């Protein structure tokens, strides 16, 4: 499956509509909506605009409690299990839970793991946690294993938006072998080849964000890989 990450801070109306229309044509599975910061306070408007132009489900991928909107369809209820910051493990969840309970959002408990892939991303910095080093496949595998045992329904391996390179296939393979729940992988994916390597290693859902802001039509190439990982064009 494939998800396009929409950061409400990063797109003007015109580029957002272009990404949404291309995503609709490419028949992707989800929009993930969120970011580490929320500078423009345009979360509700962004979701409304997406829904004007497509029927693809909108899943919140919140960087903070300020990024919850009842206009979305679901929320990744993320616990940052690669880190040891109690606010991102449980603190923010306690604050958000009663509000989320009043909405009709589908809540998807997700073990979220940040991986250091070359550069310090905004997500690493804002979370004030130490990401898992990109070559420590064993740490990633046992962290995901613990996440599954704690009851998370998904594992999200994230190099962070704008990572200089994607998560190495060997780490995705190690995590794939350690859990049965679906694995989301994102961060730094910029080409069909990287997408294919990510799927081949065992990712169930691939997330693409930054690269779409530069090349809105890339989504079509990646969606083809998602539907038929054996084929790469271009
Ligand atoms: C980040 O996984 C997402 O949380 C997507 O990353 O923006 O680098 O594609 P990119």
UniProtKB/TrEMBL annotation:
GO BP annotation list? glycerophospholipid biosynthetic process
Give start-end of the signal peptide. none
Q: Which reaction does it catalyse?
A: sn-glycerol 1-phosphate + (2E,6E,10E)-geranylgeranyl diphosphate = sn-3-O-(geranylgeranyl)glycerol 1-phosphate + diphosphate
Q: Which residues bind Mg(2+)?
A: 7, 36
Task: Drop me one GO molecular function for this one.
Answer: heptaprenylglyceryl phosphate synthase activity
Q: What is its cofactor?
A: Mg(2+)
So where does sn-glycerol 1-phosphate get bound? 156-162, 187-188, 209-210
| Keywords, alphabetical | Lipid biosynthesis, Lipid metabolism, Magnesium, Metal-binding, Phospholipid biosynthesis, Phospholipid metabolism, Transferase
What's an example GO cellular component term for this entry? cytoplasm
UniProt cross-references to InterPro entries, sorted A to Z: GGGP/HepGP_synthase_I (IPR039074), GGGP/HepGP_synthase_sf (IPR038597), GGGP_HepGP_synthase (IPR008205), GGGP_synth (IPR010946)
> Does the entry feature the keyword Iron, yes or no?
no
Broad enzyme group? transferase
User: Which EC number(s) does UniProt give?
Assistant: 2.5.1.41
Described by its record, this protein's role is as follows: Prenyltransferase that catalyzes the transfer of the geranylgeranyl moiety of geranylgeranyl diphosphate (GGPP) to the C3 hydroxyl of sn-glycerol-1-phosphate (G1P).
Protein name as it appears in the record: Geranylgeranylglyceryl phosphate synthase
Source organism per entry reads Schleiferia thermophila
């Amino acid at each position: 499956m494939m998800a396009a990450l929409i950061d409400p801070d990063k797109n003007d109306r015109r580029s957002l509509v272009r990404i949404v229309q291309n995503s609709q044509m490419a028949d992707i599975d989800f929009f993930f909506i969120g970011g580490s910061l929320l500078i423009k306070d345009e979360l509700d408007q962004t979701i409304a605009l997406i829904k004007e132009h497509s029927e693809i489900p909108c899943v919140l991928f919140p960087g903070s409690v300020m990024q919850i909107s009842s206009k979305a369809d679901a929320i990744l209820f993320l616990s940052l299990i690669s880190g040891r910051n109690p606010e991102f493990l449980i603190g923010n969840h306690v604050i958000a839970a009663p509000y989320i309970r009043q909405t009709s959002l589908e809540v998807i408990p997700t073990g979220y793991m940040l991986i250091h892939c070359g550069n310090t991303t905004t997500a690493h910095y804002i979370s004030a946690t130490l990401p898992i080093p990109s070559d420590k496949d064993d740490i990633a595998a046992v962290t995901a294993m613990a996440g599954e045992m704690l009851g998370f329904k998904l594992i999200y391996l994230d190099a962070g938006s704008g990572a200089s390179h994607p998560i190495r296939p060997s780490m995705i393979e190690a995590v794939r072998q350690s859990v049965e729940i679906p694995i989301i992988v994102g961060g730094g994916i910029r080409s069909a080849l990287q997408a294919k390597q990510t799927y081949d290693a065992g990712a169930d859902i691939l997330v693409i964000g930054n690269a779409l802001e530069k090349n809105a039509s890339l989504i079509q190439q990646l969606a083809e890989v998602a539907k038929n990982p054996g084929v790469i064009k271009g």
